[in-house]
Amino acid sequence: MSTARQRPTFRSRLTGIGVEALVSIGTAFGFLAWSKDINVDPLDRKGQVSGLAALQLRFAVLAGVLVVAMVLTHRLLAPAHRLYIVRAGCAAVAGLATGLVAGGIAVALRGTQLPLWAGGGDYQWILEWTAALWSGQEISDHYPPVVFWVIGAWARLTDQPHVLALKDLQLAGTALFGPAAYLAWRLVLRPLWAVTIGVLAMLPMIEPVKPYPQITLVMLIPVLVKFLSTVRRAERMTARRALLAGTLAGVGLGLLFLLYSGWFVWCAGGMLVAVALAAPWRTGWRPVLLLGGATVVSFVLVGWVHLRGLLAPTGGTSDDYFYFDTDTEPAYIAMWRNDRPADVGPVWPPVGELGGVGLFTLLLAAGLGLALALAWRRSIVIALGACAASAWFLRMWLASEQWETQTVRLYPRTTAVVLYCLLILTGFGVLLAVQRWRDRTGTTGPASRGPTAPVGLLLVPLLFVLASAGSATVDRYLPDERTDHAGYFAWIAHTTPYPDGRCSRWGVAHGCQPTADRVPAD
Hints:
Radius of gyration: 24 Å
Mean pLDDT: 91
Number of strands: 0
Distance between the termini: 67 Å
Low-confidence stretches: 446-450
Largest sheet: none
Strand content: under 5%
Shape: globular
Helix content: 55-70%
């Protein structure tokens, strides 16, 4: 009898992906639901600290159960079956990572029906356009429409005003960050590295106020890596397979484009160059053209409802919103703060140790060098490098013109692209270095020098980082009356009257002025 390891069938792989998605998403939403019974006053600092500690206690309990279960199954199950436990365990960690943050936002909003920002800022016109769309009116198509569809559909399904529906969508979107990043990176990485690299690099991108733009980013980058890898293997494809692969890629990219299109602008130029240089033109130009053509056609068909708005003469943005980050030294990308209140301290960027460059940036540079030295020809390095370089050049070009044009054109958002790509490249460089070391020291394969540590134990340091980062992120968004603090988004959710004029449970005591006769709690 042959002992060769059989390749998994398409059906088994599809089942495995389904299980990982179910576990990851289920864990995220399960933790969010469990967090909703933490009964504290989120506007009192003692209540905030108690809430943070309660979240950490619940995270520790679930993390402990997960680690013990994975260690036990590692000892009890045959090696052939351990992979399924590893996949489920890594998926659960990804769900816990942002289930914790979403649970923290639920604590921050306890006692109010309003969402972060209370429907103000960007949400003012988003809600206006949503109301217009769902009342049958024509709206501009220069902004991705999925957010309007989702807000309107959820409000109708739950029978509540659009502004109140936003709270549920913010919580759900925040919870989905981890599962979205993990499942997208599973297209190109194994479970342990997908959660260690993909989910860890996602942490700076978590944005509870408007989660959908950053969710698009953390999914788009691995999809582009997968697409470039597919293009490089096109010479081995039949015409039918090339058309199918291109169609799937185009549909996937089109759906992400309809969720948020800004990241496509920063990455498109670099990816076009990468595809042109990496495609096997000499030996497989026919399947490459079929693959590329199917991708373009399906992408245009799916995204046309929004793409036509961008291609219109008035479709480009003339953004002139200057804020703290537009006055920042343009080469600084080590920390992504979006355009949120500038609770960044008196000196920004922070003064670095080496010629003004901080240790974190130096580590990113070292990680980039490691990835280039060990795998400069690999698709993941080419795609990530192309996206980062494209965003960098566009950033400097647009920033160099802001004096002449008196416009921003959203260039500070390239920070997220460059930072995310460098974080992934650093993680990938470490992955390759570890693999090289294990190969050279004989710690892999039948000749390994000792028992392999259970994956459950290897996840403990990652869980500690995720718990710490989650607590820090939540603490930043807890209610704070200072207008230059991210906690102000939750503060105004408590102190702004509901559409019917009532105030939240603790709102009246902190300045909410009801316009209705009665002021019920909750």
